[in-house]
Amino acid sequence: MAFRAVTTCSLFRPSPPPLLSSALRFFSSRSCRSHSLSLRYGIQIQTRSIQSLFDSVMEELRAARKRRQKRVSASASKMGLLNEELVEDRLVNRSLQKGLLLEFKKDSDKVLLAVAQRPDGKKNWMVSDQNGVTSSIKLQQVTYIVPGIDNFDQADITDFAQKAQDNMDPSLLEFAWVELLEKNKSVTVEELAEIIFGNTEPLESYSTHLLLSKDEVYFTVLETKGSRSIYGPRQSGQ
Predict the structure, then answer these.
(1) What is the 3-state secondary structure (H, E, C) of 1-57?
(2) Of the residues 130, 154, 178, the one at which a domain ends
(3) Which residues in the chain land under pLDDT 50?
(4) How many domains does the chain have?
(5) Can you give the residue range of the structural domain that contains 149?
(6) Residue pLDDT, tens place only, 185-221
(7) Rounded distance, CA 229 to CA 139, Å?
(8) Which of 52, 90, 104, 211 could be 141's S-S partner, Cβ–Cβ 3.0 to 4.6 Å?
(9) 3-class DSSP state for residue 135?
């Protein structure tokens, strides 16, 4: 029995004295608090570092955006000037000369074709119209000068006008409108004639002018100078 008691006691470690146990708990508590403080301040320092890095990145992005905006602004200004120059080139008027075929406004709701004959003073021209009437008109009355004609015979005006009327198919404008709307592109009469008729011959150009002058669905006038205009496709729903 004595042997068993000794053996059993030797298998278990004795409990520490109360004072030692209290000391262990004290130092353990201090160690945990110290670790907690280190962890908390470490997180704060790391958070501040991340915030500083984020601020630096955002500042660099803002600076890059400003530089890009300056480049875009400069490019837009240059493009605007280029477009203005192109518009001026496309709106160059052909000066009146004897033998040119032109359209002029007789009154507020009537236009006639005529052949230019000769100057009448400094600002007017004598013309012979499709009805065989010769009259003096102001340059402001001229609504279109048919390109590609230098010496038109006044006797052929009626036949020319009839052929132009035969080309009055509004569906031609619709096809061109779809194409130009997709490209967001403007056109002159001759440029549109090339699209819908495949050429810029006198008859096709004048037919295109007639189509545009009567159209209220597909195209609108963007710019006009004298007898020349630039047209743009109307937006859907207008």
Answers:
(1) CHHHHHHHHHCCCCCCCHHHHHHHHHHHHHHHHHHHHHHHHHHHHHHHHHHHHHHHH
(2) 154
(3) 1-14, 19-20, 22-24, 26-27, 32, 34, 37-39, 72-85
(4) 2
(5) 90-154
(6) 999 999 999 999 999 999 999 999 999 999 999 999 9
(7) 15
(8) 104
(9) strand
Q: Dihedrals φ, ψ of 118, to 5°?
A: -165, 160
Nearest to 116 by CA among 108, 131, 104, 107: 104
Q: Which two tokens stand for residue 1?
A: 């029995």
Which one-letter amino acid corresponds to residue 110?
K
Task: Kindly report the CATH number assigned to the domain that includes residue 212.
Answer: 1.10.10
Helix, strand, or coil here: 199? coil
- Letter for the amino acid at 189? V
**CA–CA gap between residue 212 and residue 111 (Å, rounded):** 14
One-letter amino acid of 116: A
Quick check: 91 and 225 in contact, CB under 8 A?
yes
Pairing of strands 124-129, 219-225: unpaired
Q: Residue with structure tokens 């729903």?
A: 237
Q: DSSP letter at 106?
A: E
Q: At what angle do helices 202-214 and 189-196 cross, to 10 degrees?
A: 100
CA-CA-CA-CA torsion sign (82, 88, 89, 91): positive
Where a domain ends, among 154, 177, 205?
154
Task: Determine, yes or no, domain membership for 75.
Answer: no
Let me know the angle formed at the C-alpha of 214 by 213 and 219, rounded to the nearest 5 degrees.
Answer: 70
Coil, helix or strand at residue 28: helix
Q: What are phi and psi of 227, to 5 degrees?
A: -95, 5
Q: CB under 8 Å to 186, separation ≥6 — which residues?
A: 180, 222, 230, 231, 232
Q: What is the DSSP letter of 221?
A: E
